Amino acid sequence: MSSKHSKKKVKINFGRLALSLVLVFAVVFAVITLVKDTFPALAKSAGELMAKDGRSGENKKTEMPADPTAGMDEPLPLDDPAGSEEPGEPVQTEEPESPAEPQITKLRIRCAGDVMAHDSQLKSAKTSDGYSFCSWFEYVKPLLEDADVTMVNVETTFPGSDYHGYPTFRSPDQLCDAIADFHPEIAIFANNHMLDSNQSGFERSVNLMRDKGMNVAGGYLPGEEKTWTIIETTDGIKLGVVAYVYENFEQNGRRCLNGCYIPSALESTINSFRYYNDGDMAEIKATVEACRADGADIVMAFMHWGEEYYIDPMKSQMDLAQTVVDTGVDFVVGSHPHVPEKIVWLTNKEGKEIPVYYSLGNFISNQRTETMGDTKNKVHTEEGLIANIELSYNHATGEVTFDDISAIPCWVEKYTKSGASNPGYWIIPLIDGYKDNPELKASGHMSRADQALSNIKTIVGEDYIWDGTDSGKKE
Question: What's the pTM?
Answer without folding.
Answer: 0.79
